Amino acid sequence: MTLTVAFRKSGRTVAWAATDSLLTFAEENGVEAPSSCGAGVCGTCATALLAGEVSYVEDPLYMPDPGVVLLCCTTPKTSVILDL
Ligand code: FES
Fold first, then answer.
1. What's the domain count of the chain?
2. How many whole angstroms from 18 Cα to the centroid of ligand 1?
């Protein structure tokens, strides 16, 4: 099953290709995403997850609000829609 990642603000939907995180995936697809530490510490990359589920590659130190995910340390578990 092919997972897709939809970037709502950018109006783009892209088939997920395995990479280390949704942050890297967004950047590789020309979608600007906020980031700083890249390691789940600062919360800069926190982005609303509008649909779907993600998996955390490692437990982040920064705990995002419900409905918000850290792009730098997650990969999609299902197809997702991000508020990017
Ligand atoms: S860039 Fe710092 S938590 Fe993701």
1. 1
2. 19
> Can you tell me which atom of ligand 1 is nearest the CA of 35?
1
Residue span of the structural domain in which 16 resides: 4-82
Structure tokens at 40: 């789940």
Q: What are the phi and psi torsion angles at 24 (to 5°)?
A: -60, -40
Nearest CA to ligand 1 atom 3: 40
With residues binned 3-state (H G I as helix, E B as strand, rest as coil), the percentages for the chain, rounded to 5, are 10, 30, 55
CATH label of the domain that carries residue 65: 3.10.20.30
pLDDT confidence of residue 1 = 77
| pLDDT tens per residue across span 51-63 | 999 999 989 999 9
Residue among 37, 47, 75 to mutate when testing ligand 1 (max atoms within 8 A of CB): 37
> Which pLDDT does position 57 carry in this prediction?
93
Give the pLDDT score at 44.
98
pTM here is 0.95
